Every structure is written in structure tokens, then in C-alpha cells.
Amino acid sequence: MTRGVRWVVWASVVGMFVVILMGALVTKTGSADGCGDSWPLCDGQLLPAWEREALIEFSHRVVSGIEGILVVAMAVLLWRGFKQHREIRVLVPLALLFLFLQAALGAMAVVWPQPKTVLALHFGISLVAFATVFLPAVFLEQGDAFRALRGRPVTRSLRRLIWFAALYVYVIVYSGAYVRHTGSDLACPDFPLCNGSLFPGFSGYVGIHFAHRLLAFGGIVLLTALVLAARRMRGERPDIYRGAVWALWGIVLQAASGALSVLSRLALPMMMLHSAIVTLLFGVVTYLCLQSLPPYELLESQPAKGGKQASVSG
To answer: Does 111 share its domain with 185?
Structure first.
């Protein structure tokens, strides 16, 4: 990539990260209604009132608008310069799709009241939007030598474990967002016990919070299993092994930041750290998904069914 293209690409990645954190700030400070039910204006005005909630919500909208311009610019530049890569031809349209889906869900949440299940989904969509700008950046930065590692196959069981881990992390993310939107954050005000109990049950707000804790613990177990499975192939696929180790560290730090959020009685820095770590964790597990797939050129060069050779792309 040229310096200008690289700047736009990584500015899009950083920008999406900031958008996600600002969206989390809106939720965690209760600023979602800071601009009333008007969009894109704020309480029907071009500039917001000088109030904390209005300023936070309006700032989130401004940054999201700037990020939208960056993602569109990134999409144009990558399509013009790198569309010979099948991965770019898939990821760039997805980046645009989830950019607009993310914006639409945000606008709908302002204009029309949404059930908490849908509001929680907004954060998950934002993470997918982050992954669709993060993966093209990583793919192009790796260089041919590192991308060639994908030509060394992984076992089917390891690939399935990687994709299941990514899906499981997404479920953890959704459950955490649901905890926040239902106001269940302090339903278990202690840690590691819940209201002094090892098993408080699954009813009401306590059940919502406790289920999220169980999912997080299951994630640590799952990613530990992934590290052990990837360790057997660390000589042939160091990228998979290192990524699995990063993912395990990420979910451990994520769990620790969640515990500190509870013990600090929802201190804003702890909650923001919680959102930042899970965003990076999701980027890592989606990177593992990409690396687990063979290069498209290799797929095309494999014999087609019936014994004929598939064509190789130019």
C-alpha cells in the first residue's frame, strides 16, 4: 500500500474503534436520549444544548459521520487498487453493508423505541463493522510471505474450533450488551460469587447477569482449548497459535475488567476498558477465522470434481 492508502485504511480502523467506544459511552452514561427523538438533528437543532447527555450523543453522531466518510474512501481505494484479491472483493462490500446497517440501527433507536433485545444487537453489529475494516488492513499489511502461511492447511477440527470460538465470543458480547441494556449490571454486586451464592439461579435480572458470567467463564475454557489445539501446529502455523494466545489473553483481561466494573460499582473507566478489550478480542478471533481459510488462489488451483483442474485466477 502507498502511504496515502495506508493512512486512510488505518484511520478507518482507528475511527471505527473510537465510534464503538463512543457508542458504549452513550449507553453507559445514559445519553441515548440526549438529543431527544430527532435525527440527524439534536432536539431539532443543528447544534446540541450545552448539557452532558446532549454533547455526548451529538459527539457520537459527528464521529460516526466522519468514520462513514473514511470507510467509503477506504472502500474506493481498496477496490481500485487491490480487487484482484478475492478477500478484498468480499470484505469491502461487507464493510459498506455493516457501516450503513450500524448507522440505520442507531438512527432507528433514536426515532423509534426499540426492544432491549434489538438495542443489545446494535453493539454486536458494531463489532462486525469493526472486523470488516480491520481484516482488510491486516490482510494487506501482512505481505506475501506471511499471507503464504494460509497455504499450509489446518486440520478440519481446528478450523471448526476457531469458527465456533468466534461465534461464541459474539454470543458473549451480545449477552454483555443485554446485561447493560436491561440494567442488570449490579444484579450480582459481588465477585466471584453472586449475592453470596455460587449458583443464584436464572430468574430475573440476577439470572441475566449470572448467565453472562457463565458464558464468559465458558469462553475462557474454550479459548484455552483453542490454544492447546493450535499449539500442536505452531511450527507449521505460528500465525494461528499466536492469534489463539492473543485471544486467550484478551478474554482473560475482558473477564477481569468485567469483575472490576462490578467491584468498582460501574466506574466509567472500568466499563469503557471492558468495551475496548472486547472490541480488540473480536478483531483477533475474526483474524483467526480469516487465517484458517486457505487462500482463494489455492482453492481455485485444486482439482475440480470429476477430475478436471479448476482454473487459476490471473
So the answer is: no
